[in-house]
Amino acid sequence: MPLYSSQNLKIYNSLSGEKETFTPIHEGNVGMYVCGPTVYSNVHLGNVRTFMSFDVIFRYFLHLDYKVRYVRNITDVGHIVDDVDEGEDKIAKKARLEQLEPMEVVQRYTVDFHDILNEFNFLPPSIEPTATGHIIEQIEIIKTIIDKGIGYEANGSVYFDVVKFNETNHYGRLSGRNIEDMLTNTRDLDGQSDKKNPQDFALWKKAEAQHIMRWPSPWSDGFPGWHLECTAMSTKYLGNHFDIHGGGMDLKFPHHECEIAQNEACTGQTPVNYWLHANMLTLNGKKMAKSTGNNILPREILTGENTILSKAFSASVARFFMLQAHYRSILDFSDDAIVAAEKGYKRLMEAMSSLKEITAGSKSTIDFAAWKQSCYDAMNDDFNTPILIAQLFEGVRFVNLLKDGKETLNTEDLNNFAKAMHGFVFDVLGLEDEKVSDSNNDKLEGTVNMLIEMRKQARDNKNFALSDQIRDQLIALGIQLKDGKEGTTFSI
Question: Which of 12, 75, 291, 383 has minimal CB crowding within 10 Å?
Answer without folding.
Answer: 291
